[in-house]
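Entry 12.
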Amino acid sequence: MIDKKMKSQRGFVLIAVTLLLIVAGSILINMIPIESEKIYKNKEITEERIKIVKRALQVY
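Predicted 3D structure (tokens):
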């Protein structure tokens, strides 16, 4: 009786741990592209600012 309960608990713990790992992994994978997108957007913004500054300098 005790052995069956221990085995079922062990299986439940294994399932819970694997689900946790999958969820954590998917969150990490989803976070990485967001960070790279932010960097890319910042790069685009700085390039636009450089163009504006160059135009302003050409006017003077």
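Annotation: The helical segments are 2-59. The chain has one domain: 9-59.
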